[in-house]
Amino acid sequence: MNPTIIDRPEFKLAGYILKKDTNNLAAFQAPTFYDNDESMLLINGTRVETLLDEVVKPKKHGEYCFFYSSDNNKSFDYVMCADCDDFSQIPDDLFKIIVPAAQYAVFTTPPADTKNHEAEIAIRDTWKYIFEEWLPKSCYVFDDTKLDFEYYDLRCHTDTNSVMEIHVPIKMK
């Protein structure tokens, strides 16, 4: 599994904090954070993806999911966002972030079924591969000054052969 290396300019995201103050990050890594509680993907009974499309109104469908710490990594919030060109049109109660320019290794998960949790396993295994196999053997290191995230576009909204992307910020060793 080889990534695509890209240089991505700064971009804006707006969305929702799905779970606040996740102190035990080791137990809940981003790949399958909501495995055990899909209700966290609902706000007042509406799927977060639907709210993002209606409220943020991205030009292109896609959700960015990541952990975010505003207190020097003492606790983490799990956030789901969409692309946003202009924060002035976004309600004040939504999470907003300007993601700095970065070089990314972009990994696409192997195609998997969503009905029997194969997709979650594929995501978890891809994260494991990135940090345990690919990064140590590559000419890159993880750039912890930048944001890593999962990106879910229309390719993940199928019951079979679902894929998504993992964007890992990198810099040369």
Overall geometry comes to: globular
**How do the helices and strands follow one another from N- to C-terminus?**
EEEEHEEEEHEEE
Q: Any idea of the CATH topology?
A: Multidrug-efflux Transporter 1 Regulator Bmrr, Chain A
The end-to-end distance, rounded to whole angstroms, is 20 Å
Output the radius of gyration. 16 Å
Mean pLDDT: 85
Largest sheet composition: 9 strands, antiparallel
Show the helix and strand layout.
Blueprint: E1 4-8, E2 11-19, E3 42-43, E4 46-47, H1 48-56, E5 63-68, E6 77-83, E7 95-99, E8 102-108, H2 118-137, E9 140-142, E10 149-152, E11 165-172
Antiparallel strand pairs: 1-8, 2-6, 2-7, 3-4, 5-6, 5-10, 8-11, 9-11, 10-11
What does this structure look like?
It contains two helices and eleven strands. It is globular, with a radius of gyration of 16 Å. It has 173 residues and is α+β, with helices and mostly antiparallel strands. The strands form two sheets. Strands 1, 2, 5, 6, 7, 8, 9, 10 and 11 form a nine-stranded antiparallel β-sheet that branches. A two-stranded antiparallel ribbon has the order 3-4. 17% of the residues lie in helices and 34% in strands. The protein has one domain: Regulatory factor, effector binding domain (Multidrug-efflux Transporter 1 Regulator Bmrr, Chain A), CATH 3.20.80.10.
Q: Which terms would index this structure?
A:
single chain, 173 residues, Multidrug-efflux Transporter 1 Regulator Bmrr, Chain A, nine-stranded antiparallel β-sheet, 2 helices, globular
